[in-house]
Amino acid sequence: MDLRIIALVVVAVFSISASYAAPPKKKLLLVTHTAGFRHEEGIAVGEKTLVEIGSITGSFTLEMCRNADDVKRMLTPDYLNANKFDGVIFNSTTGDLGIPDLKAFLEWIKGGKAFIGMHAATDTYHGNADYLDMIGDEFLTHGAQCTIEPLVQDPKHPATVQWEKGTKIHEEVYIFKHNDRSKVHVLLYLDKNPNDGRPVANQPGDNLLAWCKAYGKGKVFYTAFGHRGDVWTNEAIRRHMLGGIRWALGLAKGDSKPGPVLKP
Ligand SMILES: [Zn+2]
Questions:
Q1: Which pTM value belongs to this model?
Q2: From ligand 1's centre to the CA of 130, what distance in Å?
Q3: Which residues surround ligand 1, an ion (CB under 5 A)?
Q4: Confidence grade of residue 19 (pLDDT, cut at 50, 70, 90)
């Protein structure tokens, strides 16, 4: 064969393999251990949904951390580093999970990793100031499931950029202890109590639903959604979650400065 033809074939094969080479996938640990109430449906449909949106988009792969033994073995900086995890997802974890060294785990996130929390991730480690500081607020209560029309605070963020105005979601809607906008970058919120329309305690007329924040060099994304199975399969919520996860993993850019703080 002519040398020039061989060279052309080599270049062609190289170009094809280069164009088909998948971008480096990120790797997340999905934690679903519960030491309190267990959201069976939200955890099961959530796992299926997260595996799906990770693989369809080629953004991330997941490994599972499902029980107390898994938590003890996997939620340590040594294990997470040795297995090259880029972050963790806490989907409706509850209570004191038994992380061997919670401070060391939080330092690991601060070092530049992603923490993504759904629904009862704020119903986890109650009273632990370090964990609550990391996630941004603490679950207080909820009323009956109801239909809400979330308001978008930051329409440019990957977690909300595709959110269509007027989208309605039927869900068990969390009410938080603080709704403190000076601590988190607000993404979705309600301007009234989800159940009775009255002003919300602590910060009248403000009920946060999703936010993000910087945590040292790490990134935290939290969304209150994820109780009902059909919320997990709702297209608006899938896009919201995927956008938030991609942001936390550094695959998409978005603001994380706290606020905006509402004037009384
Ligand atoms: Zn719930």
A1: 0.90
A2: 23
A3: 172, 227
A4: very low
